[in-house]
Amino acid sequence: MKKTLAILLAVIVLMSCLTACGTTVKDAAESAVAAVEEAKDTAKEAVSNAAETVKDKAEEVKDKAEEVKETTANAVENAVNTVTGKEEESLPDLTGQTLMIYCGAGMKQPFTKIAEAFQEATGCEVNVTYANAAQIQTQITTAQEGAFFIAGAAGEVKPVADYVISSVNLVKHIPVLAVAAGNPKGITGIADLGNADISTVIGDPESTPIGKIAMQAFQDFNVADSVTLVATTTTAPQLATVITLGEADAAIVWKENCNEDGVEVCDTPDMDAYVKTIPAARLSFSEDDAAADAFGAFLETDAANAIWTSFGYELVK
Fold first, then answer.
1. Domain spans of the chain?
2. Which pLDDT tens digit goes with each residue over 147-201?
3. I need a labelling partner for 112 at 20 to 30 A (CA). Which of 151, 179, 191, 294 fits?
């Protein structure tokens, strides 16, 4: 009997110990789970705070960039207005007259400002047709009207040379190798465009001077047969847009067209040999046109030069 009671007592003690241990293990497990959940919440909060900080900093940088851009634009506008104001006295009153001009699409931004400045100073209505070289050449030949052809390169005037009575070089037209912002493919020059993992876009070599330059550069750097062309465009400004949209890694484009977000100029001397000049070709259809005479003179003023340089062009003189 005593032996039975001893065994029973031992069982009771053992059961109590097991119950106590089970409770301790359960409590420890619950504490561990709670700690893990707390750590997850803390990490999640930290990531959220970091993301907000990065977002705020990005917005701050963007606002600062816009502020600088606006300040620069205002400074340029004020400078041009000042110079134009000084030269207005020498320009004739051409109120009621109209001037028709052809201009390569790649120069639309600066030339629009130039046309507006002349119109404001003289009262002459200036109508500008922006298109690629081939389209303008066709218009000049078929319509046989207009006062000037502002071409992307002097060579583009040759097909309509029979209709040109004079030509003046205005500014340098500088081609560059453009890549996606940050240059993620590590492109260092034209030779890299022959790599299989790099896609390139160029202007139409049949209708744009920048396209002709690209094809010549490919030949000169021995990548004409290996470059991966994903598209061609009818105007130069479209080239930078293709890169911005992520549809190509690189493009040969005019320097002034690389002012879009998402595009940067590759630092290479490879394109130095292909610099062109932008001419103002006076057409024979306006030989005795006072408005055309005045505009030709205006193109060589400090006011016009200030507009060109504000958009990144370099003066020939």
1. 72-173+276-315, 175-274
2. 999 999 999 999 999 999 999 999 999 999 999 999 999 999 999 999 999 999 9
3. 179
